[in-house]
Amino acid sequence: MHTGLCEQFGIEYPIFAFTPSEHVAAAVSRAGGLGVLGCVRFNEAEELERTLTWLDDNTDGKPYGVDVVMPMKIPTEGTSVDLGAMVPEAHKAFVDDTLRKLGVPPLPEGEGRAGVLGWLHSIARSHVEISLSHRPVLIANALGSPPVDVIEQAHAAGVKVAALAGAAKHAMSHVANGVDIIVAQGYEAGGHTGEIASMVLTPEIVDAVGPDVPVLGAGGIGRGRQIAASLALGAQGVWMGSVWLGTEEYRNLSSNAAWETAFTRATSADTVRTRVYTGKPARLLKTKWTEAWAEEGAPQPLPMPLQNLLVADAHSRMNAHGDPDVISMPVGQIVGTMNEVRPVADVVADLVAEFEETVARLDKLRG
Amino acid sequence: MHTGLCEQFGIEYPIFAFTPSEHVAAAVSRAGGLGVLGCVRFNEAEELERTLTWLDDNTDGKPYGVDVVMPMKIPTEGTSVDLGAMVPEAHKAFVDDTLRKLGVPPLPEGEGRAGVLGWLHSIARSHVEISLSHRPVLIANALGSPPVDVIEQAHAAGVKVAALAGAAKHAMSHVANGVDIIVAQGYEAGGHTGEIASMVLTPEIVDAVGPDVPVLGAGGIGRGRQIAASLALGAQGVWMGSVWLGTEEYRNLSSNAAWETAFTRATSADTVRTRVYTGKPARLLKTKWTEAWAEEGAPQPLPMPLQNLLVADAHSRMNAHGDPDVISMPVGQIVGTMNEVRPVADVVADLVAEFEETVARLDKLRG
């Protein structure tokens, strides 16, 4: 599984692991892939600073990356209080009412959170600043091209820039802006995603950006066969997110028996693409929470970043409550094959072994 | 590209070509794949009889298959007149009004058609009867398992039975009913399709039915790289439909400059999954016709088989009118790479060549 990206980043396998957990990211990097730490959850600069220092110290000198959320169109700025005032009362009432119906109690006094500020442009910029004072080899932007000055800042520090794209025209625009690597994010992916499936999207983007721009296949990739398929489609590597939510290392971030129950029993049909998580279409586990938003009479989700402010506290309450039927979790259609909790190293070893078996099997079919 | 299915059917490549055109089917079979004639368009037994005789005479003795549309749940039977009475007047008015707004004139006197009766169970059964008096090697059912007695009838004649599935549980039920081959039809496919993308669906179905049941990957397959990806995912062959709508041989069925303009300019984002074609979710080219049905105030599509009765005449009128913006055509997301009209033999040759290149490229990545 050795492609040009392995040389470029000094990694053994072109497996890029997007994860909010520094423990998962470190374990993937140590296992020969590239762990990419999602920064959106860090509201406080000091917390990200501490976490990156921990990563520096726990990756055995292996490379890692970071992922920020920087919309091309800069959303309304302000403190969380200012933005909070823009959330309609009817929406707040719907959330309160839904949680009451679903039996989710309030958090203990003082444990709520203000919403995820990482969706704000200013905070995402501070994530880039802090990251560049550490040793990431890659900054990925989950919402497309970062602003050109951010790309230049990364390049000046010798750091490559990746951007997600759900359509060939977006990929070409990212490349024109100076982005180095395109993550072709197919319909079946967890989190923000478009409508074009990986089988079609990956080769389309590969052909559109040409041979000098490496493409990572994303969406629908949880097994070695799927890595082989993605590389067959022309990707030089894969970007995987959901599979790490089923690892032992992820428990360090969120020890959640309800989530483990939910994902081990879910089939590939148990996800839904909806705007209820952030305001933009994202694929989540289908639960009573997502179903409540799909019912007749439910309000339309708010635009980013207001929707996340609206539901952040609800997410904390649902996670704390521990009912596997009432969860808010981005995950892709591969959730159907996530059936047990395993160490990251075992997951990576299985991916590599199944890839090798698959390519050997295909080779026997040649004319 | 040689799998067990090639031995089983006496074909050179495991490329199964679903097509309503006997000219395309014959050309695919002559080129080393398996042409599969879609029978749903044949309202008259004599016409199907003549067409299969033509196929017998024009395939150089190579094998071919047929595809019928036999719902598991038998829809209300009756003549087209009886069924026509079940179509609400408001729906008829919406169709008339939409065609008027889109500038589509009526057909010349006497050229309308009664709707596609192939959706009816009795007609689909007659398609099976007529087919078995010819020499098909495969009967596929586009809507899942055929009734068990039809499967037994096919087996008694030495004919294999294939059924489409959009979920692993449906595939397992088909196998329990005696179906021999599963077509794993992913979200990105044209025509009737579910919500799970091929990258996830194919390996899931392969694992569910086990090694003794061959699986054909369907949805998102228009190029050799995609065939390699599908075989990497565990399919023993591919089921392709959309790509043949862009061939010279297809012109024999429907010489339609408007359609050729429409598909050559369409991107992968220009399809939509909707119930407006048959009453069940099917992916079509996105046009002013599909958009009219998505507008606020448009009626909900009727259940199968009523919806097709409602819109069959409109389809004929739109095709005769020749406006590339006003077309009703099932096609998958690969329409984005259908950019020219070519002979079937060239398409097959390119599929095989790109498959071979892809597998050779993958083989170099092995550890």
UniProtKB/TrEMBL annotation, chains A, B:
Pfam families: NMO. One of its GO terms (molecular function) is dioxygenase activity. The keyword Oxidoreductase applies. Keywords: Dioxygenase, Flavoprotein, FMN, Oxidoreductase. SUPFAM superfamilies: Inosine monophosphate dehydrogenase (IMPDH). The keyword Ligase does not apply. InterPro entries: Aldolase_TIM, NMO. This is NAD(P)H-dependent flavin oxidoreductase YrpB (Nitropropane dioxygenase family). It comes from Nocardioides marmoribigeumensis.
